[in-house]
Sequence to fold (1788 residues):
Amino acid sequence: MVLLLHGPNLNLLGERDPSTYGTATLDDLVAATGAAAAEAGLALEHLQANAEADLVAAIHGARHRCAAIVVNAGALTHYAWSLHDALASYDGVKIELHLSNPAAREPWRHVSVLAPVVDGTIAGFKADGYPLAIGAVERLLDRRRTAGP
Amino acid sequence: MVLLLHGPNLNLLGERDPSTYGTATLDDLVAATGAAAAEAGLALEHLQANAEADLVAAIHGARHRCAAIVVNAGALTHYAWSLHDALASYDGVKIELHLSNPAAREPWRHVSVLAPVVDGTIAGFKADGYPLAIGAVERLLDRRRTAGP
Amino acid sequence: MVLLLHGPNLNLLGERDPSTYGTATLDDLVAATGAAAAEAGLALEHLQANAEADLVAAIHGARHRCAAIVVNAGALTHYAWSLHDALASYDGVKIELHLSNPAAREPWRHVSVLAPVVDGTIAGFKADGYPLAIGAVERLLDRRRTAGP
Amino acid sequence: MVLLLHGPNLNLLGERDPSTYGTATLDDLVAATGAAAAEAGLALEHLQANAEADLVAAIHGARHRCAAIVVNAGALTHYAWSLHDALASYDGVKIELHLSNPAAREPWRHVSVLAPVVDGTIAGFKADGYPLAIGAVERLLDRRRTAGP
Amino acid sequence: MVLLLHGPNLNLLGERDPSTYGTATLDDLVAATGAAAAEAGLALEHLQANAEADLVAAIHGARHRCAAIVVNAGALTHYAWSLHDALASYDGVKIELHLSNPAAREPWRHVSVLAPVVDGTIAGFKADGYPLAIGAVERLLDRRRTAGP
Amino acid sequence: MVLLLHGPNLNLLGERDPSTYGTATLDDLVAATGAAAAEAGLALEHLQANAEADLVAAIHGARHRCAAIVVNAGALTHYAWSLHDALASYDGVKIELHLSNPAAREPWRHVSVLAPVVDGTIAGFKADGYPLAIGAVERLLDRRRTAGP
Amino acid sequence: MVLLLHGPNLNLLGERDPSTYGTATLDDLVAATGAAAAEAGLALEHLQANAEADLVAAIHGARHRCAAIVVNAGALTHYAWSLHDALASYDGVKIELHLSNPAAREPWRHVSVLAPVVDGTIAGFKADGYPLAIGAVERLLDRRRTAGP
Amino acid sequence: MVLLLHGPNLNLLGERDPSTYGTATLDDLVAATGAAAAEAGLALEHLQANAEADLVAAIHGARHRCAAIVVNAGALTHYAWSLHDALASYDGVKIELHLSNPAAREPWRHVSVLAPVVDGTIAGFKADGYPLAIGAVERLLDRRRTAGP
Amino acid sequence: MVLLLHGPNLNLLGERDPSTYGTATLDDLVAATGAAAAEAGLALEHLQANAEADLVAAIHGARHRCAAIVVNAGALTHYAWSLHDALASYDGVKIELHLSNPAAREPWRHVSVLAPVVDGTIAGFKADGYPLAIGAVERLLDRRRTAGP
Amino acid sequence: MVLLLHGPNLNLLGERDPSTYGTATLDDLVAATGAAAAEAGLALEHLQANAEADLVAAIHGARHRCAAIVVNAGALTHYAWSLHDALASYDGVKIELHLSNPAAREPWRHVSVLAPVVDGTIAGFKADGYPLAIGAVERLLDRRRTAGP
Amino acid sequence: MVLLLHGPNLNLLGERDPSTYGTATLDDLVAATGAAAAEAGLALEHLQANAEADLVAAIHGARHRCAAIVVNAGALTHYAWSLHDALASYDGVKIELHLSNPAAREPWRHVSVLAPVVDGTIAGFKADGYPLAIGAVERLLDRRRTAGP
Amino acid sequence: MVLLLHGPNLNLLGERDPSTYGTATLDDLVAATGAAAAEAGLALEHLQANAEADLVAAIHGARHRCAAIVVNAGALTHYAWSLHDALASYDGVKIELHLSNPAAREPWRHVSVLAPVVDGTIAGFKADGYPLAIGAVERLLDRRRTAGP
Fold:
C-alpha cells in the first residue's frame, strides 16, 4: 500500500493560482496517481487534510501497514516540525513532492523541514510529479527487496 | 456576508490579560461587530477556532459566498503559513485585525505572515478595532463595486 | 484639534505610482479627512513636510493643544528614530497610517520604527484609511473621556 | 488535579528511537506519573494530542479546575506560539518536561517557545523526569499555599 | 537530444563514499540513462567536467540543439552563479538532479543556486534518479508539445 | 559522593535580587541538599567558586571519586566553554541546575554552553530545585546500576 | 536641464580628507561639470544641501522640467529612504555618483539605498566622475530620444 | 570657544520622561555648562536643533573657530551618518554626551554611529554629565597644548 | 594597451535577456569600445572567458604590459575571490563595468567581491557603459601621468 | 571609600601600545586618581587583577563598605557576564571607564557586557578619564545624599 | 610521492605584496620543499594552477599514487567547495598550508572550506611553512605505518 | 627560552577522548617538546593552567625573557579575549597550537580569538604538532636574527 498525503489548501487545486500549481484538480491528481500505482502493482490510499495533526496521525497509521508515503504537505512543509518527527518515526519509503518549484518562489518556501527525513524529493513538475513519484516508490521498494533482510 | 474569524485563545477574551486585550468578552465583540455590520447592511458570520486547519477550512468555505473576511488570528498570525496560503486563495476583501499593537510587544509578534496577503491591517485599537474593520470592509466593497467588472 | 501629518514625497500623491498609492491627491485626502473630522465634531490641522525635523517640531507644538495625531510618515516610517522619540513624548491619541500595505512591498518597508509608540496602526486601505483613522481617533478619545481622570 | 499533557508523536513512545526517548511506553509513563501523583495526594488527568489546538483547549479547560499542568509538547515546543499564549493565560503551576535533552540534539530543538511562560523546566531524564515533575508540582503547590492569599 | 551534465568529482562515482552516493560508477549511470532515453525515443549526450566553465560552455552549446538538460552539478550546485546564469539563458527543459539528499547533509549543501532557474528537482534517489529524470524530461517535453506554439 | 558546584555570585544568595533567586542563602540550600542526599544514602561535597578554573579543577577532582555532579554555574553557564569541556570529560551523572528560569530573563541567558554535555537540566524551581536534583541523581544512579556493566 | 545634487558635507570638498575625496573644491567640480554639460549642449543647475528634505524638494522640482539628475548624496546614500522614494518618483535619467569607491571603505558605506532606483552608478573616479556622469547623461538622453515615444 | 550641540527632542528636557532624562530643563543644562566653561576660562556657544542638517552646518561653522564640540545628538546618535561625516571632518576636541545610559535601554540605542569619530564618550550621568564634559574638554585642550605643534 | 575582459555567459549578449542586458552583441560592444579607445589613442585587447582561471591568467599577463583593465566579470563578480586577488596584484588602472544595475536585481548580485580592489565602478548604462569606461581609463591615465613618478 | 578596579593586562600600561593607551603607567594612574579622590574628600582603594573571579570578589567585598566602584575591566568588558552579575548585585555608584575609545577599535570591542548595569560610562580620554571618573563619583554621591532616604 | 599544490595567483609569489607573502618566488619555495622532501626520503611533485578544476583533477590523479598532498589553495580556500569534495575523496595525508595568517586579514579569509577535510593546517610562517609541512607529512606517514593495517 | 603554555583540561590528556586528542599524556608531550627544543639549542619552560588569568600572567612574565611562546589554550581559544590582549602585548615569536583540527569539530570551535595576534597556527597533527611547533620557533627566530636590528 502507498499512502498519498496532501496538506492544507491543496483541496483547492485547479482553482487556486493555476500558473503556479497547474490546472489539474486534486481528484485528477489522485486518479492519475492511482492509475500509475496500479500499473506498478501498488494500491494507493489518499488523504488530504488541512490539519498537521491529521497528517501526523495518518503517518502513524501507515506504520507496519504501508510500504511507502508520498507527501505534498503544502505550506506545512516549511514549519511543521511535528510532521518532521512523524516522518522520522516511519521506516518505509518516504518521498517529498511539490507541484511548484519552491526555490523559485518566496524566501520562506526555500527551506523544507521535511527534507532531512525523507528518502528523496521531487519538485517542480506540476501534475507530472505524481507518476514520477510512483515510479520512484516502485524503484526504491525494488532496491529494498533486493538488499534483502 | 462578512466572515469574522478569531484564532486560538481569543475565546478567553475579557478574562486574559485585560491590560493588553481590554475587558470585552468575545461575545461582546462579536455582538458589537454584528451590530456595526447590520448598520452597514451586511450580515456577519463568526467562527472562533483554536485550530489553524479550522480557520483554513472556514476561508475555503467563504469562497464564492462571503464578500469579506476579517481575521484576528491570535498567535497564528506569526507562524501559520497555511493560513497565509488560504487567504492568498481568497479573492474577496481581507482585513487583518489585532486588539493589541503587536509592534509594542515581544519581538516574535513583530512579524505577521498574513500581512502580505491582506488588503489592510487595523491594529492596536482594542474593542474599537471591530467597528473600524467593518467600516473598512464597507468602504472597500464600495470601491470594488465602483470599479465595476 | 486633530493634527494630520504627512511625511516626505506624499505631496506627490495622485501623480506618483497610483497603483500603489491610489489616485487621490494630497489635497483630496486632507479635504476628505477634514470633512470626516468635522462630522465627528473635531477640527483638523494639517502639515505635509519632507523634513523629519519639521514633523518633530509639529508634534512638539501639538503637546497640550491637540487631542490626537494621525501620522503617515512616508519613508521616514522606517528609519526616523527622532520621530519615534517625538511621538513617545506626546501623550494624546496617536495613529500610524499608511495608504499602501507596507508588508506587501520591499523588505525595508516591513519594519516601522514608529509602531512601538503609537496607539494603533491602519494600513493598506488607500484613501479610505483617512476617514477610518478619524473614526479611530473619535473612539479612542471617547474611551479616554469615559475612563476619566 | 494535575493535568499531564503530551504533544504529537509521543503516542509512539517505546517504539520510536529508544536511544533518544527510552523504552517506556506512554501508558507506562502515565501510570508511573499517576502513581507518583497519588502518593503526593494529587489526582492526575492525562491527554495526548497530535493537534496544537487540542492542547490549547485542554489548557483552557484546566483554568479554575486544575492546580498544575505538566507539559511535554514534543516538536510543538519549538514553534507553537498559540500553545505559549494558552499557557500564559493559565495561572496555576506550569512545568515543561522533556524526555531527551533538546540542547544535545538538532539546532531547531535548542529554542523552546514555551519556556518563557512556565515556572520551570525538567529535561533529559527520560522516564525519570515524570516523577521528578510530580515532585516539583508538589513543592510549588506547597510554596503557593505557604505564601498565602 | 537530451544533454546530461555531471560536475566535479562525479567521475569518482562508485569509488567515493558509497554510503552517500551508491555503488554505481559514472559509466553505469550514463549507460542506464542512455537506455532509458532510448526507450523514450530520445538521444542522450553526456559530459562530465570538473570545471564550471566547461559546463557553462556545454549549456551554451545546447541552445537551439538540445531539447532538455539534466544536470547533477556536484558541489558547484552550491556556489556556481555562472552556472545559474548559463541555465537561465537556456530555454529548454532543465532538471536538477542529485544522487544524495542534500538537505540531510552539511548545512552548506542545503542551498542550491541552480534551483531558482530549473523546471524541477529530483534528489535523493541515488542511481534511480537518472531514469526518473528521463521520465520527467519525456513528460515535460510532451506538455510543451501539447501546449503548442 | 555527589559534588554540588556553585559558580560566581551565588555566594550572595539571599541578599541578591530575591524576586529572581528566592530568599534562601547558599548555606540554607547546601544544608537542604545535604539533607536530601543523606536521605537518599548519598554523601554531599560542596564548592562555591567565582573562578571558572576552580570549578574545572573540582570537576577533574571528581573523576573516579564522585558518582554525580550537580552544577549551578551562574553566569558562567552562558560563556564558559572550558567548563563545558571539563564536564564533557567527566563520565558520572551530570545535572545542570538553575534557581531562576533563564528563558524568561535577558536574551544572553537563553543559551547554555553546558547543556549539550549534561544528562539533564532542572531550571526555575528556586530552592526546590535542589532536592529535585538530588532525586534526579538518585534515579539516574539507579538506572546505571540496573543497566549493569 | 541637468540637475546636479550634492548631499551633506560635500561643501567641504577640497578641505576634507583629500586622500579620499581629492583636492578639487565643490566649486571646481560644479564648474567642470557645467563646462562638460555645455559642451554637450546641456544646461546645468546645481544644489548642495545638508538636509535630505532639501534634496527631496529639489528632485520634486525637477519633475517635468529637468531631463536628468546626477546625485552625489554623501552619507545620505546609505540610509535616506525618503531620497530613494523621491528618486523613484522621478522619470528622467538618474545617475548616482561617488567621488570615492564606497566598496573600499567602512562596511556601512557598502550598501546604497539609492542604487535600486537609478539608471546607473559611477563611483571611485574622484573629480573625473563628473564629466563621465555628464557623458552618461548625454548618452542616455540620446537613447531615450531614439527609442521615441 | 566650545560648541555645545543638542539634537532633536532635547528641547523637551524636564518635561519628557524625567525618570530617564532627569528634571533639569535644557536651559538649566546650558546655564550650568556655561558656568562650568566660564570657570575653566572657556566661552560656550549653544545650539539645539531637531534637524540633522542644522547640526551638520553648526559643525562646519565650528571649523577653525571653536576648540571643542560637545554633542548630545539624541536619537540621531543611532542613524545619522551625515553627522558622523561632519564630525569626522572637524579637527578639534569632540565629545559625545548622553544623559541616560543608552546601553540600558532599547536595543536600537546600543549602537552609536558617532562614537567612532569622537575623542571620547560620557554617558549616563544625567545633568552631571555636562560639567564632566567641560572638564574633559579642558583636559584634552591642555594635552593638545602640551603636545605642541 | 587597455585590456577589456568579459566573464562567463557574456558571449551570449544580444541573445540573452535583452530587457536586462540590451540588444548589442559582444562583438558590437568590443568594436564600439575599440573605436572609443582608438579615438583616445589607446589600443584595445579583448578576452571573453567563461573560466575564472582564464581571466586570472589574462590579468597576470597584463602586468607590466597594459596600462588599464576594464572588467565585466558577469556572475563571477559575486563570488570569484581569486579574481579579486588577481586584480589586487595588478597596479594599473582597474575599472569594474556592468551592463545592468546589479543593485536593482536579485540580492546575491548586490555584493561585488571585485569592488574593493578597483579604482572605480560604472554600472547600469548598458552598451553606453563601454565608451564611458574608456573615457574613465583615459582620464585616470592622465591623472597618473600628471602625478609623475 | 571608592574602589578602583583594573582588569587583565592593565598592569602593562605605559609599556603596551602607547598610541592606544597613553604613556602613563598603572601606578601613575592610581596615584593621580588617589590625589583627585583625596581632593574630593574620598579615600581610594585599588585592585588590578587578571582574573575575573578576583574582580568579582572585590565587588562583593565592596558591598556595604564602599560608596562607589570605578571599573576599567580591560578585555573582560566584552565577555565577562559574571562580572556583570557582580556589578548588578552592588548598590553603590558604578562607573565604567576606558582609556581608549572602544567604538573606534575592533568590532568585538564595540559591545560592553557591563554597560547595562553601571550608572554611566567614561571612555576615550586616556589618563584624563580617571580624574573625570572621580568627579563623576563625587557628583553622583552628592545627588544620592540630596535625594535622601 | 608527495603532491604539492598551489592555487591561483601564487605564481606571482615574490612579486605580489611581499609584506604579506614574503619575498621568495614560487620556484624558490618548490625547490626548498623538494629539498626538504628529499632529505626525508620523499619525492615531490608540484602543480600550480589558477583553475579549481585543475587542482581537483590533480587530487584525483594522486589517489592510489601519492602518499600525501600539501595544498596552498590561495583564494580558493574560501569558496571552492568542489576542492573540498575532491580532498574528501582522497585517503592519504592532507595538509592545508598558508603563507600568511588568514585570521589576521580580511573577514572573508577567516573561513576555510578545506579545513574540515584535511588532517591539519599550517598557517602564517611564510616560506618556513613549506619545510614544516614536509616535516608534518613525514610524521603523519610514520604514524600511519606504525598503526599498521 | 621558549614558553610552552597549555590551557584548561589539557592536564587530562591521554585520559580524555583519545580519538580526538591522541593517547599521549601531557607529560609525554612536554618531554617530547623539551627534547625537540634541546636539539634546537633552546630551553623550554612549561605551564599548564586552567585559569585564563594564570596564562595571562605567564605571558607577561615572558616579556623580555622568553624568545617565543607556543600556546595550546584549549577551550579558551574561542572566547578568552584577555588572553588575546596579553599575546598582543608580547613581541616575541607566538605560535597557536591545537592537537585536534578545530574546523572539523563543533561550530563554536571554528573561530579562534587568538589567531589574529599570533605569527602562525599549527593544528590537527596531534602529538606531532609539538616538535613541528618547535621547528617553527627555530625557523622564525632565525629569520628575526637574519633580519637584524
